[in-house]
Structure formats: C-alpha cells, structure tokens
Design goal:
about 5% strand; 2 domains; transmembrane helix; 8 helices; mainly alpha; about 45% helix
C-alpha cells in the first residue's frame, strides 16, 4: 500500500465550520483556531476563492498487534463535539495498541487431604517397672493400717481425754502419730512423682513421641492417687502403639482392693472398740 501525500503545515479553513482557520501540522488537525484575516466571515467567503479540500487523512500504520473487539467498534460521537462539514471526515488518530485482558488472579489450590495416621508402632514395649511402682504405691499405705495398733492408740486417746491428769503423755503421742501419718503420706506422694518421671524418661528413650508428661503426677497431692498420670499415659500410648492399657486395669484393681481393705479395717476397728463404747455408755459418758 502506497502512502498518500499530505499537505504541508499551515492554516486552512476550519473543517468544523465557523469561518475561522485551523492549523494543520502536516499530519493531523490541531486545536489552534484563529479568525480569518480582514473582514467578516461572509465577506471572506464571497471575496475568496473556494477553500481547498481538507487534506486527506493519513493512513493508520499497519501494526502486528491485533485490535481488540472494543477498539474495532465505531466511536460514539460526543454531544458537544463540533460537527464536520459534509464530505469531510474527522481526523483519525493512530489506534492505540490493544491492552491485554487482565488475567484472573491465581487462587491457591485446595489443601491436600490429610494423610492417613501413622501406623501404631507395636514393637515398642510400654510397660516399665516405674509405672507398676506408681500403681502399687497405694498398697503400701494399706500395710500401715494393719501394722499399727490403732485400737490401743484410740483407747488411750479416749481415756486421756476423760482423765487428762492420769495420762499426760497422750497429747504428745497423738501429735506424734498425726505427724508420722502426714510424713508418710508426703513420702508416698514424692515417690509417685519420682517414679512417674522415671517412667516418662524411659518411654522417651524407647522412641515414644511426646509421652504423657510426668508433671501430671503432682495431682497426687490433691487426690492422693497417681490415677491422672496413669490414665493420661495410657491414652497417649494407645494412640501411638495400640497398647499400654495394662497399668490402667492394674490401677483400677488396686483402687478396688484399697476400698475393700479400708472397709474391712474400719469394721475391725469398730468391733475392737465396741466394749469401750459400751463401758462409756454404762458410766454415762
């Protein structure tokens, strides 16, 4: 395609009408407008020969970028745009290159489904000597119930309260027994915490991932039993190895034995103190 020659830069009759002059910069119409020199527009049009035709519009250079559908649509004229004379076309500007359509933002893919839980490691032994010591410690307390002569101690305490002048040592003996029982309970609690720590450390050495923490054994100070650590330990081991419930069953058995033994001890103690109670009732105490 050959390029059509365009008129040189200069002032030409305004193709929008009005009788003025508009500047042509050699390639397109500019916004510079001025009145025609001398006389009115009507006089100039009568005295001046017919104005030359508007210079042809230079062709739009052929580009390799394809125009978008929106760019190929005919422009909609504005209501306030000046009307061009009949037979004259408005100057056309070079079409701007089509903008690429904005791509949709990439959203992260959905998280993968959680993998199946790791199989239980049944090759890890879960029983330790320490956990069984924690289970068996309440039985040690039962031994003191049957080894100590509680009948004589209670009888002397009752007589001392009735005849304080005949048994001045009773108050000191009662205080000693109370202090001894408290110290024994503290020793049992301390041993429960110690054995729980040793059991926790041994489970870690065997490869158990985060076994139930031994600090839970301090609940023995509140409930006089290591049941919190024993049950929590069994839950974690059951999840990781599929076993470890034996100490729980042992603790339940020891608890039942303790309850039964205490009930028997109370019955024997009341039976031994029954003559003393009848004697006191006889003398009006």
């Amino acid at each position: 395609m050959t390029d059509t020659p365009t008129p040189p830069d200069g002032w030409y009759p305004d193709p929008a009408g009005g009788g003025g002059l508009r500047r042509w910069n050699g390639t397109a119409w500019t916004d510079e407008v001025r009145p025609a020199a001398g006389g009115s527009s009507a006089e100039q049009s009568s005295s001046r020969p017919e104005a030359p035709a508007a210079p042809p519009v230079p062709p739009t250079p052929n580009t390799d970028v394809p125009a978008s559908p929106a760019a190929s649509a005919p422009p909609v004229p504005r209501a306030d745009a000046p009307a061009y004379a009949s037979g004259q076309s408005a100057p056309d500007h070079a079409a701007a290159p089509a903008r690429p359509a904005p791509s949709a933002p990439a959203y992260p893919t959905a998280p993968a489904a959680p993998s199946a839980s790791a199989p239980a490691r049944r090759d890890i032994p879960t029983n330790t000597v320490w956990i069984w010591l924690v289970v068996a410690l309440p039985l040690v307390s039962l031994v003191t119930l049957f080894l100590f002569d509680w009948t004589t101690y209670i009888q002397e305490s009752i007589y001392a309260s009735l005849y304080p002048e005949q048994a001045p040592y009773a108050a000191a003996a009662s205080l000693a027994v109370t202090a001894g029982a408290s110290a024994f309970s503290f020793v049992i609690a301390a041993l429960t915490v110690l054995f729980s720590f040793l059991d926790w450390r041994q489970l870690r050495a065997r490869g158990i991932d985060r076994p139930f923490h031994w600090a839970w054994s301090f609940f023995v100070l509140a409930i006089s039993s290591g049941g919190v650590y024993i049950i929590g330990r069994a839950v974690i081991l059951r999840r990781q190895t599929g076993k470890g419930m034996a100490p729980v069953w042992g603790w339940i058995a020891v608890t039942l034995v303790t309850i039964i033994a205490v009930a028997v001890w109370v019955a024997l103690l009341l039976n031994a103190l029954l003559p003393l109670i009848e004697e006191l009732q006889y003398y009006g105490y």
